[in-house]
Amino acid sequence: MSKHCESGQVSRRTVLLGAAGALPLVALGVTGAHAGKLSQASVNYQKEPHEGKHCSQCNFYIAPSSCKQVDGTIYPNGYCTLFVAKG
């Protein structure tokens, strides 16, 4: 059976099967099964504050020296481009 209707469009069945196949991938992302962190270099991490912003003020910082998003040792006075102020 062709994946395209006579009009050249993708059939409803193809779309539904594709969506069903993507559901496990979405579930993995939502549950945090993909726990890979970004490298310090990829987020321009530095050990000094930037314009008054530093890691201990960031929503992603985990005391005493970790981050939810960035791999490696994170200093409280450090900074990276992912900075999001605690709310």
UniProtKB/TrEMBL annotation:
Annotated transmembrane regions: none
Molecular-function annotations in GO: 4 iron, 4 sulfur cluster binding; electron transfer activity; metal ion binding
GO terms for biological process, alphabetical: aerobic electron transport chain
Domain High potential iron-sulfur proteins family profile per the UniProt entry, residue ranges: 26-87
PROSITE patterns: HIPIP (PS51373), TAT (PS51318)
This protein's UniProt keywords: 4Fe-4S, Electron transport, Iron, Iron-sulfur, Metal-binding, Transport
Ranges in a coiled coil: none
Statement: the UniProt record of this protein carries the keyword Disulfide bond: no
Protein name (Swiss-Prot/TrEMBL): High potential iron-sulfur proteins family profile domain-containing protein
